[in-house]
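Entries read sequence, tokenised fold; example below:

***
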Amino acid sequence: MKIRLFVLSALFLTGCASQAPHTVVKQQYTPLTQAAPTQIQGEWSLFTATAATHYGIDERLLSAIISVESGGNPDAISRSHAVGLMQIKASTAGRAVYHSQGRRGQPTTADLRDPARNIDIGAAYIKILQDSALAGIENPLTLRYATIVSYANGAGALLRTFSRDRSEAIAKINALTPEQFYHYVQTRHPAAQAPRYLWKVTTAYRTI
């Protein structure tokens, strides 16, 4: 494992990670087939720990999302053009992160194939979700559930299931226990894949 991390670090520092590797197309929302969450946490901990510390977010959540989104494959590209370990879409999450950092444009595919850059952008996007649309959710577990659903299907879609007014939606969420919120998503979210995604990431999180 130490050898793997050393090699990855060397590739990142020399810029070799930006070279175009073999593209692997995966189906979204399929069961994990490539690596267990604990293995992924170990393989990518150098980058997840750095990003989690920098943005002040949960490192285990990063590893769990990587497990479900790509199975730990940094070359993964979905049919909807989500790229890399955290399956970042350049035109949405990537652009939002660049905007928050005062940068123009969006990350390139080469950027998103780089493990360190991909994880950094994914972590930055999670921070944006928690500090903006999901700001005000009081219970840490409820916030984690809301972050997971929002990462895959957008915070707006989640909040609108409670109210079109953000403040009212947050108040209704805070009136629920984490278990009630989880059940609400499982039964009320308009996106069919949202309940399954929440379950999969939560399951991965618990095994790390």
About this structure: The radius of gyration is 17 Å. The longest helix spans residues 37-55.
